[in-house]
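Q: Can someone sanity-check these two? First one:
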Amino acid sequence: MNYRAGFIGLIGLPNSGKSTLMNALVGEKVSIVTSKPQTTRRRVMGLVSGADFQAVVVDAPGVVKAKSGLNLFLHEEARDVISESDVLIAVLNIDEKSAEQLDEIIKIVSEAKKPWIAVIQKTDLPVLHRPQILRDKLSKFAVPVLQGSALKEGPALAEAVLETVKSLLPKADGPLYDQDLYTLSSVRELSAEIVREKCFEHLHQEIPFGSAVRILRFNEEDGPVVKLHLEVLVNKDNHRAIVVGREGSTLKKIGTDARKEIEKLMGRKVYLDLKVVAKRDWQKNPGLMKELGYVIPKS
């Protein structure tokens, strides 16, 4: 049997549409998606299993350059995904204002010396000349180039991408993980990410980027209702007031939207308790960064 299995890394700029493509490939929501850049912070892994292959699709944070704090983690996390993947997909969004930034993604992926393809994303947008410009740039690499909109035509684009990349995966004796799974993230991790997604949706300016979510308690054993106690961390005291909102209105919206989605995820009723805590410069606190999972273990 010619079975293939391996890791596929999605590499692109912040807000390039990687997470939307990831969810389309898996056929389930495993990566949170917002209109704001840098929504994805940690790698998220989804599983796609077929009769003759299993792809572990890894949604990496958008490629950024930084020397410290959370942005340094994002930079290192993306680089780590590149080094550990068997196949790479360069996700190139046509709404990127800087052609040089897209050139950098192509350069990074091509220099990794691994099998790769390019996916030109967001072609539903009215920038008709840009896909051809990118195709001309990619022609010298002799790699497959696909294009489409994961938002508008997700299933069709996902099918084309999977059909193209599965032959690039390493040969294997069988699947790497249980074929009934669609993600390697735990329900705890997914719940915290859903809350963070709702913070991005309901908050503006720099506040979402300076926030994080950590789990205080997660109890799904005592009774029919799952009890979640989570904490939203922000950088400044005045940011805390904004997240809470007048008479708690903003936090209530965040909590209500998050609870409904977590209930859908778990198939059970959920009691969600959210608190907001100001931790000045939490991105510079090694202990907190490690607790939140924003540290790459050194081998």
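And here is the second, same format, sequence then tokens:
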Amino acid sequence: MRTITVAYDGSYYTFKWLKVLLWARREFKKNGFKIQLLSLTSYFPPFTTEQNQLDLALKKTNLDIVFLAFHYSTSSIGQDLESRQAFLLNLKRRCNKIVWLDTADSTGNCLFDVMPYVDGYFKKQIL
């Protein structure tokens, strides 16, 4: 069975968008996939940075497919271009597939700089 690890910022805003994965858990299981939801705020003390939390969490996890869901306006992962690219390169070496889940409301802006590092890019809203 393959594992889909969904790492998100722990916000209810993002969780609302991701909970469909939990609702469809049985269908995923029938097709050979296990869903593992990883909320960073649930596991780590608040004094560590979001980037450090994510690094620690993903090192402890068996990585097959990783979905990353962070809102660009509230996440430190979405703010700094160089650290985001370095993080994705490091993660790419440790997992089979990376899928970026763009949780921004607008259909006009995308994080195109992640495209070379991810295997899939899903936008929350489309025209």
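A (reply): Looked at the second one. Residues 81-94 form the longest helix (14 residues). The beta strands are 2-8, 33-39, 65-69, 97-102, 120-123.
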